[in-house]
Amino acid sequence: MAVTIKDIAKATGKSITTVSRALNDYDDVSHETKLLVQRVAAEKGYTPNLWAQRLQKQRTETIGLILPTRGPRLGDPFFGQLIAGVGDKAGEYGYDLLVSTQAPDRDEMAIYKKKLQGRQVDGFIIVRTRRQDRRIDYLRQTDFPFVVFGRTEGELDYPYVDEDGVAGMAAIIEHLVRLGHRRIACITPPEELMFATYRLQGVQEALAQHGLDMDPALLRRGDLTQRGGFAEAQALLALPQPPTAIVACNDLMAFGAISAAQQQGFVVGRDIVITGFDDTPWAEHSNPSLTTVHQPIYEIGNMVCDMLIRLTQGQSLEQRQVLLKPRLIVRQSCGADAS
Amino acid sequence: MAVTIKDIAKATGKSITTVSRALNDYDDVSHETKLLVQRVAAEKGYTPNLWAQRLQKQRTETIGLILPTRGPRLGDPFFGQLIAGVGDKAGEYGYDLLVSTQAPDRDEMAIYKKKLQGRQVDGFIIVRTRRQDRRIDYLRQTDFPFVVFGRTEGELDYPYVDEDGVAGMAAIIEHLVRLGHRRIACITPPEELMFATYRLQGVQEALAQHGLDMDPALLRRGDLTQRGGFAEAQALLALPQPPTAIVACNDLMAFGAISAAQQQGFVVGRDIVITGFDDTPWAEHSNPSLTTVHQPIYEIGNMVCDMLIRLTQGQSLEQRQVLLKPRLIVRQSCGADAS
DNA sequence: TTGAAAGCGCTAACAA
DNA sequence: TTGTTAGCGCTTTCAA
To answer: pTM score, two decimals?
Structure first.
């Protein structure tokens, strides 16, 4: 069976307490005792029982990340990069990462409650925020540590990291208008997602600034998947007056839109222009390569994790709320490179 | 503060023991007591302290998945889909999933030891096996539950799920030979990965069966990334006698190879043929779409998780070792569809 | 049907 | 510098 602190106490002839303190390098233990205990512990291959430690310390050194989705859709590189960013940073601190999947349905809150009240994690990272987000309401009200990737409607009195979607989309529109486009379509994310609001707002404000209006027929709601982008682009291209540019609110939908356009014989970048948002690893290598807005998801994962761990340790944050400036990445799909 | 079993005991006037038994629905508690206790528990919003439960029960209902990589590379959809598959299945059982990232360096084993000996998880899922895999050696020797996605050299006396890479690559080669290709190049994974061996073996056996030899100049080692595929394909295309087909051992490298070929003005599917392995979500939508071998990673994640949980519960497995038959997916990049 | 008591492995206040 | 003791919240004998 497993080696416990008790075994070491017996083997060294010291008390359990002394062993505990020696192992934790307290300075009220004699040097010799410390050496002895540590040697014996190493010999016996002692590793502390974490539940016992945690039960005692009332801290878990674990952070929770509940992915708001189920099923194979996690092929979306978004989640992989995010997990990498959060997990790597957690590892640096010696923290663990508890990952669950739970679609945003009526069971969603149960899992947060269970993990919080069961004291399984010291804090949560919240991703893919809705405009009204009960996860955030709940955590705010219980006063439990959390950091958000994204924002919500209403008062933003919690720590978050987000990229400025308004500015990002505005940059895209600016660019397209400068290239001469006037009939610009937009494929948006599901309405309940907060970033849908920001990105659409960016589109509309930038258009307005150039005296352009969004034709309601050119505004279509997608589901963030390639399949969705494909379907919506098909519908747009079938209009009596099709757009000259399609602005998709994420890369995946843009890829779907490109497929749809190509399938109908369009040369993307020449006959029609398509852009994305996220700058996934694929954007650079797709054909044509995708004009998009860069979003450093891995680094954001790093940041939110770092902030959360500091919070759980009672530290205060230098920057509680971070809004990243987006960077436009011009590639071939907008035609600027193509010619 | 948190509600404990003690609070409920006080509130109901029952003993701690009785409360515990009532909550766990033991049948030596009177119906009334049970109802009373459960009502009060619900009112107070009681949730068991999992650390205490686990300390007591010596079981964690948590499984460990340590991703053998670090850094932003988890954009690889492989890991996202795997986590989804494992996580969803774990959720079905009410199990948690503990995810870590740890590159296969000399610190690698420390994290396994810590989690195992700290009794943080009931079992491990091992992925991306090396030909000689110390993770498996260690777990085998400690007799700790684990299930492997992949195989190793030597005796396969542990539970695993894998897809038959030999058959998969053979199917690709068969197909290409039938299309008339004779000069076929291969971009392989890093040598230490076990599936590199199988996939290369599949290529060579299938070639041999047609009396063809692999020109050593056409065999190049990649690193599983797009960037790597790009570089190796460039080298191949610059040969005095370039290949007519490039068989990449995963989709990512195939995408890189496609980019390289296109950049040099080749029409992929006509001037050169490129294939992948995995059938990632992107393969279908790339341009040209990618001929590849399907690997149901999400489902494999489901399977290994299911097997592992059964193992940790002391159940025996109907099928301890599963070798999945691969399915060839013919699309445009091999020229069969293109015409 | 219930409760008292022990103990899971550990940490920490207090005494010696 | 060390050991005694209590206790984290829970489950589980054992006795009543």
So the answer is: 0.92
